[in-house]
TrEMBL record:
<protein>
    <submittedName>
        <fullName>Mycothiol system anti-sigma-R factor</fullName>
    </submittedName>
</protein>
<feature type="domain" description="Putative zinc-finger">
    <location>
        <begin position="11"/>
        <end position="44"/>
    </location>
</feature>
<dbReference type="Pfam" id="PF13490">
    <property type="entry name" value="zf-HC2"/>
</dbReference>
<feature type="region of interest" description="Disordered">
    <location>
        <begin position="83"/>
        <end position="105"/>
    </location>
</feature>
<dbReference type="InterPro" id="IPR027383">
    <property type="entry name" value="Znf_put"/>
</dbReference>
<dbReference type="InterPro" id="IPR024020">
    <property type="entry name" value="Anit_sigma_mycothiol_RsrA"/>
</dbReference>
Length: 105
């Protein structure tokens, strides 16, 4: 996605790191670059708003569910692999995780 206009920070960089921005997991200098980009680029601002809304909805609907310890460890391990630049295995990290919700009728 791109608005077709040149920006100091490229749209692809912003979208690749959008969740880091949403989760406040990036340095302040990078946050500032992203904020400037959102002021200039309405498609990226729209994507940011959509992802922010989804994140709030998930937190509201699922925020009180306990995550199984082994699933948390697998997910954190995968995140560390990705951050270190190593390829992550293709296995399903949720396989074998207990289902905590009941089906709706």
């Amino acid at each position: 996605m791109s608005c077709g206009e040149p920006h100091e920070t490229d749209c692809s960089e912003v979208l690749d790191h959008l969740y880091e921005f949403l989760d406040n997991e990036m340095p302040d200098s990078d946050c500032t670059k992203f904020e400037v980009h959102f002021e200039e680029c309405s498609p990226c601002l729209e994507k940011y708003g959509l992802e922010q809304a989804v994140k709030k909805l998930v937190k509201r609907c699922c925020g009180s569910d306990d995550v199984p310890t082994d699933l948390r460890a697998k997910v954190m391990g995968r995140i560390e692999l990705i951050r270190s630049g190593q390829p992550a295995p293709e296995e399903d990290v949720t396989a074998g995780a207990p289902v905590t919700s009941t089906p709706q009728e």
